[in-house]
Amino acid sequence: MYKVIISDLDGTLLNENHELSEYTRDIIKKINNKEILFFFATGRHFLDVFKLKKELGLTSSYSISSNGARIHGLNGELLISHNIMDEITNEILKTDMDIEIEGGACTDEKIYLINPKKMKIQSDTSDLLSEIYNKENMILKNVMKIFYFSENHDLLVKIDKEIKSKYIEYIDTVFSHEKFLEIIPKHISKGYAIKEIAKLEGFNLSDVLAFGDGFNDFEMLSITGKGIIMENASVDLKKVLPYNEIIGINNDDAVAKYLENLYLKDNS
Asked: pTM for the whole thing?
């Protein structure tokens, strides 16, 4: 039995409305009562994670946010922090982009929005503030993540290639979804963060059961004892992890059903 459970949020544990169903909430609470270490690993801002943890009663749980750029401890304390270099951040943010692309840059306190139109910032339900970014008079510091969103995947591929051609020595890029490109500090990932927590807690990676659906979950799903892929995950992720188990879709509470069968069936 796995001692540690780690789950991605959007596209994995959350439904298409970016919400937890009552059934999933109930299963998580029951799993937590069994003293299994359960925590989230997400591209979201840590304030989103804090709010969700509070709602679920996960008062003693780690948090991996911004794809590993922030790791918070059992009591919410900041353990590890990584930012994109300030100079590189501001150069990237001045990159010309198609009008169909929206974007943003995340700091601990705020999301700076670039060309916001259709994009709904999921963290607008948390205490995180947002502000329109103006490249003419703003210089940002301590940015943990830059992101771009577009319904046109080809446009994101184009800006991805441009940014990597100039700054690959300093940053990594990842498609958490075909419509969502993320720029993160070099060598940082959810997998990296899990290794750091494993050192602190003294568990082995083989003790970890992980769930994910995007390429920002690749490292996490490939290094843990069992990495499970959602049916709604991208075809490309399934191709690069051909031996990983695939379960149902996020809208059908597939993670919660899997956990209930694995950990709670004897108590039903």
From this structure: 0.93
Give the span between the Cα atoms of 248 and 186, in whole angstroms: 32
First-to-last CA distance in the chain?
18
Q: Which of 162, 1, 31 is nearest to 91 (CA)?
A: 162
* Segment 64-104, tens digit of pLDDT: 999 999 999 998 999 999 999 999 999 999 999 999 999 99
Where in the sequence is the domain holding 13, given as residue range(s)? 4-81+188-267
In this predicted structure, what is the pLDDT of residue 121?
A: 52
* CA dist., res. 14 & res. 8, Å (int): 9
Q: Hey, which residues are catalytic here?
A: 8
What token pair was written down for 154? Answer: 């080809």
Q: Which residue has the tokens 């304390």?
A: 77
Residue 185 · residue 82 · CB < 8 Å: yes
The CA dihedral of 110, 153, 243, 62, to the nearest 10 degrees, is 0
In the chain, at which residue ranges do the beta strands (DSSP E only) sit?
4-7, 37-41, 63-65, 70-72, 78-81, 102-106, 110-114, 129-132, 145-149, 171-177, 180-185, 208-212, 226-230, 246-247
Q: Is 112 exposed, middle or buried (0-12, 13-18, 19+ CB in 10 A)?
A: buried
In the chain, the number of structural domains is: 2
Residues 179 and 136 in one domain: yes
* Ordered strands of the 4-7 beta sheet: 78-81, 70-72, 63-65, 37-41, 4-7, 208-212, 226-230, 246-247
Give the separation between CA 110 and CA 130, rounded to whole angstroms.
5
